[in-house]
Amino acid sequence: MRSNEFYDVVVVGGGNAGAIAAIAAARMGASTLVVEQYGNLGGTLNLGMSIKGTNDGEGSKVLGGIGEELINRAKDMGCATDASYDPRHGAILGQDPEAVKMLLMAMAYEAKVNFLFHSFLVDVTMEDSRIQGIVVANKSGLEVVRGQCFVDCTGDADLTALAGGGTSFGRETDALTQPVSSIFRVGGVNLEGLWCHLEQHPEDLGTPEGWTGDDYTVEFLRNTPGAGVEGFKSLIQKARDAGDYHIPRDRMGFNPLPGRKEVAINITRVHDINGLSAIDLSRAEVETQLQMLETIRFLKKYMPGFEDAYVVSSPYQVGVRETRRIKGEYILTKEDVLSGRDFADRIGRGAYPLDIHDVKQNAVVLGSQVKGSGVTLWRIDKSYSIPAQCLIPLGVDNLAAAGRLVSATHEAAGSVRGQAVCLVTGHAAGVIAALAAAKDCSPAAVPVSEVQAALRSQGAVLDRVPSKKV
Fold first, then answer.
1. Closest CA to 424 of 74, 56, 20, 151
2. Where are the chain's structural domains?
3. Left (φ > 0), alpha (ψ -120 to 50) or beta: where does 457 sit?
4. Contact between residue 208 and residue 202 where contact means Cβ atoms under 8 Å apart
5. Is the CB of residue 135 less than 8 Å from the CB of residue 142?
6. Are 340 and 464 contacting, i.e. CB atoms less than 8 angstroms apart?
7. CA pair distance 258, 208, nearest whole angstrom
8. Please, what's the b/e burial string for 410-439 (b: 16 or more CB within 10 A of its CB; e: otherwise)?
9. SS3 state at 265
């Protein structure tokens, strides 16, 4: 196998967490390579969903550092909005996914990140409990990428598992995972027609069962860029009764793109998918794409304002909410998230809602019977801090991790998988890896005080400062 050059830091996975991790490590002076199976950076940021959890429900800022810089660059281009208070999610902002995708590439290029696109992790080479290199497959065949320190941003903890690190899978009681979905974008939407429908049919706007927070008003939706709603239960039931709707979800969520007649649609759902199985993922791709086709027919026939709708883009792959997570010295819990707990070794904060899609339809979630809604969502009023220990897998000496795979319970993972939180953990993991490479030590041996000092100097938010609602 061809052997690539040696890097201080190798980031595996270039999604929202991995892209930020690579930028952070390179800005710290580490020679950095990001390995990504697709041809761009950003992952789920490229789908067009509004970004939630940049501030907590009481208005305190949560997202800073490189993630905030990305949003500010998009705002300067007119491709993102300011964060606004959201009665269900705490805070929300709209963004143009195509602009954000290109801006991430520009930021990584400016930081002198090295890129290995269209490359898929298949194996590792080890010496005792230390990764010597990773084996990737691409158009050139198999090649080895060697490094001093590695960052697992694969989403599925693939690198951690291959290296023999500690992992968990799905829900603790039965290893079931949240269902998968495909978020897609639709154009030709007359939002005013939709708002008028909601004014006349408030039952389609009510807060779903299993959700906390306050009810939306049509005035809020009209005047808040990026704000969407999960609802339209009566229209879905009407279509179901007529035999025009078969998706196992009784509400539709959508987010408008600022200043456009486009929205991102969240309605597809497939249960019983193991995101580590190629067979299951193939089935999920087929089923969600067929559901997207059914959805566009449903929108045009039943949804006011969507009579002339058309598909703008479909996702690069089916969206997987949950598979493996790393096991760190500490496992973040639901109680930590909901109580706004602070940790001495904090490396950032999170405020994305505790968002859990039922592993089975009509399942018991968080001790409450949820009938039909299929989602439990609890607003985070006081942001919680994220311990450094949640980013360092047990059992591997030179590995850090970021994104939805960080050390957390099934319930807590419903929050840490949010985009804004992934930007935060990506920033921290990149800094930790760069410091570990510079010191020739393990990430666990890097003094937390040095990590915190570096993050603060780069604008990351580690401490909660009470604020008025955004």
1. 20
2. 2-174+322-457, 184-313
3. alpha
4. no
5. yes
6. yes
7. 25
8. bbbbbbbbbbbbbbbbbbbbbbbbbbbbbe
9. strand
CATH number of 2-174+322-457: 3.50.50.60
Q: Is 394 exposed, middle or buried (0-12, 13-18, 19+ CB in 10 A)?
A: middle
Tokens for 431? 């800094």
DSSP assignments along 273-335, one per residue: --TT-HHHHHHHHHHHHHHHHHHHHHHHHHSTT-TT-EEEE--SSPBP--SEEE--SS-B-HH
Buried b (16+ CB within 10 A) or exposed e, 209-245: ebbbbeebebebbeebbbbbbbbbbebbeebeeeeeb
pLDDT tens digits for range 87-131: 999 999 999 999 999 999 999 999 999 999 999 999 999 999 999
Q: Which of 457, 451, 460 is nearest to 391 (CA)?
A: 451
Instruction: Reply yes or no on whether the pLDDT at 369 is more than 50.
Output: no
| DSSP assignments along 132-150, one per residue | EEEEEEETTEEEEEEEEEE
pTM exceeds 0.90 for this model: yes
Concatenating the DSSP letter of every residue in 182-251 gives --EEEES--HHHHHHHHHH-GGGTSPPTTB-SPPP-HHHHHHSTT--EEE-HHHHHHHHHTT----S-S-
The token pair at 338 is 């909901």
pLDDT, one tens digit per residue, over 265-303 is 999 999 999 999 999 999 999 999 999 999 999 999 999
Asked if 56 and 382 touch (Cβ cutoff 8 Å), the reply is yes
Tokens of 119: 């490359």
Residue 366 pLDDT > 80? no
pLDDT band at 363 (very low <50, low <70, confident <90, very high): very low
Write the pLDDT tens digit of every residue in 212-244: 988 899 999 999 988 988 999 999 999 999 999
**Selection from 259, 251, 290, 264 nearest residue 187 by Cα:** 264
CA of 394: how far to CAs of 148, 164, 268, 330, 334, in Å? 17, 9, 36, 10, 21
pLDDT value of position 127: 97
According to DSSP, residue 384 is labeled: E
Strands 2-12 vs 141-152: parallel, antiparallel or unpaired: parallel
**Residues 6/30, Cβ–Cβ less than 8 Å:** no
- Residue carrying structure tokens 């993050």: 455
